Amino acid sequence: MDFSLTEEQVLLRDSIEKFIREHCDVERHRRLLRSSPGYDPETWRTFAELGWLCMPFSEAQGGFGGGAVDIMVMAEAMGKGLIREPFLPTVVTCGGFLQCAGDEAQQDRYISGIISGQSQWAFAFAEHGSGYDMSRPGVRAESGSPGYILSGTKLSVLNGASADFLIVTAATEAGPSLFVVDASQPGVRRESFMAVDGSYAAHVHFDQVALAPEQLLGVAGEANSYIDQVLARTMVAMGAEALGAMQVLLDTTVEYTRTREQFGQPIGKFQALQHRMADMHLKIEETRSLLLNAAILLDEGSEEAVAACLALKVKFAETGRLVSQEAVQLHGGIGMTDELSVGHYFKRLMLLGLLYGDEDHCLERYMALTA
C-alpha cells in the first residue's frame, strides 16, 4: 500500500489547518456552546466557498470526486480544531446516502443544497430499546395513497435540531427502508437538546407524516445494505477526526508536563509520566495505521473494507478513551475546566466512540464478518 498523500491532499490539509490556527481556538468553542444552533452559520458558508463541502461528490454533481482518503485528510485536520460545524452528519453521512441510494432526480434536487451550504441534514436511526441495531426499525412507513404514512419517534438525532432534511430508517412491507423527510413537513416535531460534546441534537417525532413516493430513498427493503456502505465511510471520517483530536491532546499534555513543576523540576522528567505519554503515542499510531488501511481499502472497493472500518471503530473508541483520560489526569484538576481545551476534546471523543456503535457492538460485528 502507498501511504503517502498526493500534492493536492497535502494542500487541502494545510489549508484546513491554517484556517483552524487562525479561527478555531477554545474561546470560539466556548462561545458557540452558549449559542444556538451551536455552530457558526457564517463559517459553514465559508466552508462552502472554499469547496470543502463538495469534496466527496462526483464532478457531475458539482463536486471534486474525492474518496475516503480525501475525507480522512479533511476530517483529521478538522478534528484538531474542535470544528463545531456539522460536516460529518451533513456531508459525509447524509451526502453518502444520497450518493449510494438516491436516483438522479433526488441527487439533482438535494446535493446542490449541501454543496452550497444552504441545507443541513441529519440521519435519524436510534429508537427506544433498539441499541445500535438499525436493521429492525420500530418507526413504520405504512403504504398510503399514493406514498407512505410515517409514524414513530427517533432519538438523539445528531444535528437534528438544525437539519432542514432528515434521512429516516423505517419499516415497510418490503423491509427496512430509507426516506428523505423535510423537517418542516406537517407532523414532524423536534425536541432539541445539547449533546455531551456541546453540539445540538434532537428527538424527532413523526405523527402521521405524509410522504410522497419520491421521498423513498433507494429501493424499499434495502436500507441495511445502504447503511453498511455509508457508515463504513463515516467511520473513516470519525476515526480521522478522533485521530486529530487525540494528537492535540498528546501534544498539549507533553507541553504541559514540560512547564508544570513539582519538587523543583518539570513533571515531564518523571519516568512514570513519560511511560504514560509513550503509551498514548503508541495507541495513537496504532489508530493511524488502522485508519490508513480502512481508507485505502474503501477507495479500492475491497471486500474487506467494511471489516477494516469496524476494526478502526473499535480501536479509536478504545484509544480515544485512554488518551483523553490520561490527558485529563496528567493535567490534574484543570483538565476538566471549561477554560482549557482538554475537557472539550474529551467530550467530543466520548461522543465519537459511541456514535453508530460502541466497542462491544463493533467488535461483535467484526467477528461475525471475519469468522
Draw up the topology in text.
Elements: H1 7-23, H2 26-33, H3 41-49, H4 68-79, H5 87-101, H6 104-115, E1 121-124, E2 140-143, E3 148-158, E4 165-172, E5 175-182, E6 188-194, E7 200-211, E8 216-217, H7 223-259, E9 261-262, E10 265-266, H8 271-300, H9 305-331, H10 341-354, H11 359-370
Parallel strand pairs: 1-4
Antiparallel strand pairs: 2-3, 3-7, 4-5, 5-8, 6-7, 9-10
Helix pairs in contact: 1-4, 4-7, 5-6, 5-7, 7-8, 7-9, 7-10, 8-9, 9-10, 9-11
Structure commentary:
The structure is a single chain. This protein has 371 residues and is α+β, with helices and mostly antiparallel strands. The protein folds into 3 domains: 7-119, Butyryl-Coa Dehydrogenase, subunit A, domain 1, CATH 1.10.540; 122-221, Butyryl-CoA Dehydrogenase, subunit A, domain 2; 224-370, Butyryl-CoA Dehydrogenase, subunit A, domain 3. Helices cover 52% and strands 16% of the residues. The protein has 11 helices and 10 strands. The strands form 3 sheets. A 4-stranded mixed β-sheet has the order 1-4-5-8, with helices on one face. A hairpin with a 4-residue loop joins strand 2 and strand 3. Helix 1 (7-23) packs parallel to helix 4 (68-79) and helix 4 runs parallel beside helix 7. The longest helix has 37 residues, at 223-259. The radius of gyration is 21 Å and the shape is globular.
